[in-house]
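Minutes, project check-in
Item: structure for the 94-residue chain
Input as provided by the requester:
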Amino acid sequence: MKADKLLHERHVVAEHAFVELLIWRVPVPVQGSQHRLKYSLGLVMHGRCVMRYDNEAGKGDHRHEEGAESAYRFSTFEQLLADFWKDVDRWLSR
């Protein structure tokens, strides 16, 4: 069974910024995660990814911000998107 793409969107959020949302349903959880979603959600400003949520194999659910990596507690698809957009809003209000 292959991965099913659930979401692939790109949104311009400011003159100098966009977000890209990629989420797949995978047949088995990605190593380090307990759910069947594979995702990469990123905020790019001035051509540089400044904040990203993902679950890279072996690392599990985590987020990157200004070069630092921290664990992310995944609960649901909807909460993942809400948490990401909240961080996007925080970045854009700087």
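Outcome recorded: The chain has one helix and six strands.
No further action items on this chain.
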